[in-house]
Amino acid sequence: MTKLNLNACVLAAWVALAGAASAQQAAAPAANPLDVIPDKAPFATPYGAPIPLARAQSAIDAAMAEAVKRGWAMNVAVVDSGANPVAFARMDGAQLASIAVAEHKARASANYRRPTKAFEDGVQKGDFKYLLTLDGIIASRGGIPLIEDGKLIGAIGCAGGTGSQDEVVCTAGAATINK
Asked: I need a surface site. Which of 6, 56, 95, 123 has the fewest CB within 10 A?
């Protein structure tokens, strides 16, 4: 009787394992979003002429006005279409480490022709860790391209608060150009 019970247990275990294996095979693997081939290249805004200093300064002024209105001490950087620095401002009391972060956000936004929130979302929501291996990426919101007449003329980067605060201030600055 013991041998019969042992054989029954082995058979039951084998059936359970076989059922689990066939269930795994029956479930089709989820499509990998990285394998999707879009018809058009995303973020393909053409590069335009570099933003002039006066326009860069007006974007900074608008961003700083928003930061002052909200009581947030910020660093604001504007780069041209080639990601070269054009203008920068640091409010009194703004975090010193955020100087480089604001500049980095502006450069990444210009170089990759997209808001830096796209990288944040890709890493946080899409689990696309590969983004962190790309040169010049910063996966933190607060970098926004500056688009005029359908062409990228620069980007603005803001840092010193939370990512959402940085983005609010940057959006105010970008609104002077992006209409």
From this structure: 6
CA–CA gap between residue 179 and residue 63 (Å, rounded): 15
Helices (H) and strands (E) in the chain, counts: 5, 4
Instruction: List the one residue out of 154, 163, 159, 145 whose CA is nearest residue 90.
Output: 159
Least confident of 1-5, 83-87, 92-96, 162-166: 1-5
Task: Locate 12 and state its tokens.
Answer: 């039951």
* Nearest partner of 64 among 55, 73, 56, judged by Cα: 73
pLDDT(171) > 70: yes
Question: Which one, of 48, 54, 47, 50, lies nearest residue 87 by Cα?
Answer: 54
Q: Which of 106, 135, 111, 131 is nearest to 121 (CA)?
A: 131
Strand, helix or coil for residue 123: helix
For the whole model, what pTM was predicted? 0.81
Total structural domains within the chain: 2
